[in-house]
Amino acid sequence: MIHMKRKHYFILGLILILTQTLYALPSVQVASPDGRIRFTVSMEGELPSYQVTYKNQELIGNSPLSITFDNGTFGKQLKINKPVYSTKEETYELIVGKSKTVHSVSKEVIIPLKETLAPFRKINLVVRAFNDGVAFRYEFPEQKGWDSYVMYDEHTTFHLKGDPKALTMFLPSYQTSHEATYTHAPFSELKEKNLMDMPVLFEFPNQVFMSITEAAVRDYAGMYLWKEAGQLTGKLSPNLQNEQIKVVADLPHQSPWRVLMISDRVGALIESDILTNLNEPCKIEDTSWIKPGKTTFTWWNGNVVPDTTFLGGNNFETNKYYIDFAARNGLDFHSVYGYAEQPWYWDDGSWFGFPGPNADIMKVVGSLDMQEICDYARSQGIDIHLWVNWIPLYEKIDEAFAQFEKWGVVGMMIDFMDRDDQEMIRIQEEMLAKAARHKLFVQFHGSCKPSGLHRTYPNEFTREGTLNYENFKGGMVTVADHDISIPFTRLLAGAADYHLGGFRAVPKEQFKVQQSNPLVTSTRCHMLAMYVVLESYLGMICDTPPPLTKDNPDLSFYRLFL
Predict the structure, then answer these.
(1) Under a CB-based contact definition with an 8 Å cutoff, are residues 61 and 159 in contact?
(2) Residue 58 forms beta bridges with which residues?
(3) What is the per-residue pLDDT for 544?
(4) How far apart are CA 75 and CA 101, in angstroms?
């Protein structure tokens, strides 16, 4: 009888030991609706880590997660509280987007992480698994004793398994126009301690493809990738005044989604709507005025007005010339930029990229009457949008947007931001929200990648953030290999402004730099195909009108398909 009691106590003790061990090393898993993608979170070592598999093939091994704040690192001495599972399903319409109607289904788990030692902070790791990828983010809920934070670093790591081939763009710094060529090489051969712009594409054995990017970047710093000691980690764009600081926020708050787009068919990544699935619904009540279309862009061709009796310049006749061309050929918009290095508004700077100290978005240069231009364009069935440098615009944003609406302007190209720190991310969203109140669309130029925000603010028509055909004006030839890389990298993030519509094609050996009537090395067939391949809601005809006559088959193709 005593022997039986000892045996009973031994089994009970073993159960308690196993229970405590499981509690100390908990594991939480969520799978995509079709079960092919699995995301597992566990306590491996001192830090929580995650693992990702696709069809039982490990793509990301145990990758630690932690965050450093001004009051210490969150990651050590944690316990995982009870996870909350749910199914997310919705059907929504996109005003602008690669799909008109999107049906989204995902499995979600909220994993509460809590420190076991002071200051006892709580952060939720939220994971959503779709059939075409998985995403996770950090949520900072309201809690006693912690109502705001200053973040120094977000240590999100990606331990790639094996040696996948990478297609990536290296950048020189955080302040950049995101314009560079792509490197295609095994991950082991990529140079270390260099910023990589996202999205980055990885090809694993068995033809499995994974892209890393981010969604819903709002009130947060943009993220890059960084290889060091053979491992991949995220790097946040720093505060301009204090590089140690990356994000400052009041609780509740959340990070953007860290997105892994996954498929055994690379084209499925292009087709994916996962980024808009992860963004909030449309915030604009009346969207009837949001109408994408085709536009001129006279800066590219040098504002050329051939075979005319007037001089080109910042004047009505030059703009009328292009408005008439747009009306004859089925375009929707004419862009008013200015002339040479002088914008349409007063600027005492030496170059349009660097506004002078007295630049004033509210003062139109004396040779222009913007109301006259808008009225004439409207009489021809054409709408006007304006190029602006973001600095003088933001200084008088409310006053300027009200004036644009009064003139009848319908949109803007906002240029030279060249940053994605938290402040600039906030400014971009403020611009979108305020522009919508005045029925203005936005084309961000000199900007970071998109993150699916066009679902929330469909007046965002397109973004640059890529090496494109404007570089033919400066001598950097955008080769076909680069064009082929774009759909599997930058385009995975969303619409790309690529300055299409240059038709003066020459062989590379005959190429030369021309500020007026620039040459291109892409054939006309290649150029026209790019209109179909690239996602954009503001298609450009950048060339000078003469080679684009009404009977030109290239222009007929443009009118038919765009």
Answers:
(1) yes
(2) 53
(3) 84
(4) 40
Is residue 1 over pLDDT 80?
A: no
3-state secondary structure 108-158: EEEEEEEECCCCCCEEEEEEEEECCEEEEEEEECCECCECEEEEEEEEEEE
Residue 97 phi/psi, 5-degree rounding, is: 160, 170
- Tally of CA atoms within 13 A in the half-sphere of 107 that contains its CB: 17
Among the listed residues 337, 347, 434, the one whose alpha carbon sits nearest the alpha carbon of residue 392:
347
- Angstrom distances, CA of residue 258 to CA of 49, 86, 107, 199: 14, 19, 16, 11
Q: What is the pLDDT of residue 543?
A: 87
Interaxial angle between packed helices 370-379 and 316-328, expressed in degrees from 0 to 180 and rounded to the nearest 10: 20
Q: CA gyration radius for the chain?
A: 26
Decide: helix, strand or coil at residue 246.
Answer: coil
Q: How far is CA 58 from CA 45, 111, 160, 194, in A?
A: 20, 22, 9, 26
Q: Report, in this order, helix, strand and coil percent for the chain, each rounded to 5.
A: 25, 35, 40
Q: CA-to-CA distance for 314 and 341, rounded, in angstroms?
A: 11
Per-residue tokens: 309? 């009796």
Burial of 7 (0-12, 13-18, 19+ CB in 10 A): exposed
Whether the model pTM is above 0.70: yes
Sorted by sequence, the CB contacts under 8 Å of residue 172 that are 6+ apart come out as: 195
Alpha-carbon distance of 209 to 417, in angstroms, equals: 32
Q: CB neighbours of 387 closer than 8 A, spacing ≥ 6?
A: 299, 335, 336, 337, 338, 343, 344, 412, 413, 415
Where do we find the tokens 């919508």? Answer: 436
What pLDDT, on a 0 to 100 scale, did the predictor assign at position 320? 96
Q: What count of residues does the chain have?
A: 562
Q: At what angle do helices 422-437 and 397-407 cross, to 10 degrees?
A: 30
Q: How far apart are CA 443 and CA 459, in angstroms?
A: 9
Mean pLDDT, the chain, whole residue set: 92
Angle formed by the axes of helices 553-561 and 524-533, nearest 10°: 0
Q: By three-state DSSP, how is residue 303 classified?
A: coil
Residue type present at position 344: W
Q: What are the structure tokens assigned to 111, written together?
A: 């994993």
Q: Which two tokens stand for residue 1?
A: 């009888």
- Structure-block tokens of residue 129: 């698994």
E strands, 394-440, in order? 411-415
DSSP for 443-478, please give it.
Answer: EE-S-----STTTT-TTEEEE--S--GGGGGTT---
First CA to last CA distance, the chain: 88
